[in-house]
């Protein structure tokens, strides 16, 4: 089972329902404005050139696996703590697979999580991503925006970010809008309608077991 993705204006409207931006007091609720990312609100194109593709593995690996996932998607958490972990150990770490992670945003919480994971230039991205997926039920379980924001702050600090770094990353409004525009662009180009979705050497696949994933990767490797 996968979480269905709302694309276009519907997806933007869900996330844009938050307040304008991150309040300076940690006890207050963060909010996100997607004004510039929504063509209905602005005619200016959002600059996404600063968004870095998050990758693992050898650049010249014979197999490329692109995953579209959301930090608030339970099925994505299951993939990362199961098949994704095995894929890394067996194929990514030895140079057979290049892995590309692309964010999908269903809600403001997923966007906040991504901004924490990408903090400090994204050097800690996959380490923080592991924490976010392993602890998903804990940091998002309450559904309360204030508590969720503070839980994400704690995860960032546990990963080695200091208070100033965490707040600076969460308050980067331009980055928030660029991330959403970047997500929309790729999701539309690849016709993504659910998460997790895998694109393996250009072919799109829905969520799967590790046995099925391994079979596809092995078939691709056999063609090299």
TrEMBL record:
Record SUPFAM superfamilies: Thioredoxin-like
Protein's organism: Roseovarius bejariae
Family from the record: Belongs to the thioredoxin family. DsbA subfamily.
Signal peptide: 1-23
The organism's place on the tree of life at top rank: Bacteria
Keywords recorded for this protein, A-Z: Signal
Pfam family, one: Thioredoxin_4
Thioredoxin-like fold domain span: 53-218
Name the record gives this protein: DsbA family protein
InterPro entries, per database record: Thioredoxin-like_fold (IPR012336), Thioredoxin-like_sf (IPR036249)
């Amino acid at each position: 089972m996968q979480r269905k993705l709302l694309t276009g204006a519907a997806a933007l409207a869900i996330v844009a329902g938050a307040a304008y931006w991150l309040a300076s007091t940690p006890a207050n609720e963060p909010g996100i404005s997607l004004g510039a990312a929504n063509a209905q609100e602005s005619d200016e194109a959002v600059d996404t050139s600063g968004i870095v593709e998050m990758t693992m593995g050898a650049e010249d690996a014979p197999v490329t696996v692109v995953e579209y996932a959301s930090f608030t998607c339970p099925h994505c958490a299951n993939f990362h703590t199961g098949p994704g972990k095995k894929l890394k150990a067996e194929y990514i770490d030895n140079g057979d697979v290049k892995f590309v992670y692309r964010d999908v945003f269903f809600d403001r919480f997923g966007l906040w999580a991504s901004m924490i994971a990408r903090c400090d230039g994204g050097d800690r991205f996959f380490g923080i991503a592991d924490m976010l997926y392993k602890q998903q039920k804990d940091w998002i379980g309450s559904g309360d925006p204030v508590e969720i924001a503070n839980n994400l702050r704690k995860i960032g600090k546990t990963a080695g970010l200091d208070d100033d770094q965490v707040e600076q990353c969460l308050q980067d409004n331009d980055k928030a809008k660029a991330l959403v525009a970047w997500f929309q662009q790729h999701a539309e180009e690849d016709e993504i309608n659910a998460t997790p979705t895998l694109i393996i050497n250009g072919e799109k696949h829905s969520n799967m077991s590790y046995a099925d994933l391994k079979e596809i990767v092995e078939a691709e490797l056999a063609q090299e």
